[in-house]
Amino acid sequence: MATRDKSPPSTPTTTPPPKTHASSHQIPPIALIVYPITLLVGSLYSSISPTARFPHAHPAPLAPSIATDINLSSPPESPVNYFARKDNVFNVYFVKIGWLWLTLAFASLLISQPVYRKTATSSGRLTQATVRYALATTAWYLMTQWFFGPPVIDRSFVITGGGCERVASGVAGAAQAATGAGEVAALESVLTAAACKAAGGKWAGGHDVSGHVFMLVVVTGVLVCEGVGVAGDAICKALSFSTGEEGNRKDEDEGEKGRVWVLRFVLAVAGLGWWMLFMTAIWFHTWLEKWSGLTIALGTLYAIYFLPRKVPAWRKVVGMPGV
């Protein structure tokens, strides 16, 4: 009598990978190595280059409203490099308002890319993208602006022995010495770099985590992860400024042309952010200060863009670009 074949043993169920949009791509974690390489090359250059090692080549840093803004002495009249000047155009109109540029670029992606069009699925993607932006903004705000009082960077500076000191040199120093202990106590009670500068003091003596490195790494990382995730297939078109395919370009509708220019804008912001990060690696901060800022920034990017790939519950909250 024939026997029926036994059904194969059941296998334990696993969480299936998320369904991805047709054009979605994800940045591999190894790509983050570009940041330590950038800091390493810049730091090495600052150590071995006679120009970068010149004692007066380090003016006040480029970072906005954080401890590094006043940790160094006043800038010389003639900096040895344009990017070592606090008033260089890229610092004034890009770095000092860096989060505004990130916000504009991020918003342009949400408005222009088809993956965020108004459908049931895209509505969820839009919400998750907003959560990712909110998390990055919160990290930036707590680190550089406010953390139940002074920001994390200023708090760490004070905890490691730093504080607000009077600028005393020559005749000015003698005049300040005669002002009495009251002014000294007032300066010592200042707990933020911005307040110290406003009081005429100098932020010195502690470990100054590079807020400039932190901000620029997060800005470039967020934009690259988002841009590649939602429009990976369009990146090459965005990078191509060739006019040799006039026939094909005439067939493109205005919406597609607009999306291409949005991607160019996003890539331009990310590219300039990387360049200013490289300039920071050369001209400002100690090795440890730069690498501590980098470590915090990479932790922020990992939590927002790479941890969701391994933790389904977290992926449901923050999602993945283009997924």
UniProtKB/TrEMBL annotation:
Residues 9-19 have a biased composition (Pro residues). It comes from the Eukaryota. It is found in: Endoplasmic reticulum membrane. It is a multi-pass membrane protein. The keyword Membrane applies. One of its GO terms (molecular function) is coenzyme A diphosphatase activity. Its EC number is 3.6.1.-. Keywords: Endoplasmic reticulum, Hydrolase, Lipid biosynthesis, Lipid metabolism, Membrane, Phospholipid biosynthesis, Phospholipid metabolism, Transmembrane, Transmembrane helix. The active site is at residues 212, 285. One of its GO terms (biological process) is phospholipid biosynthetic process. This is Acyl-coenzyme A diphosphatase SCS3. It comes from Aspergillus ruber (strain CBS 135680).
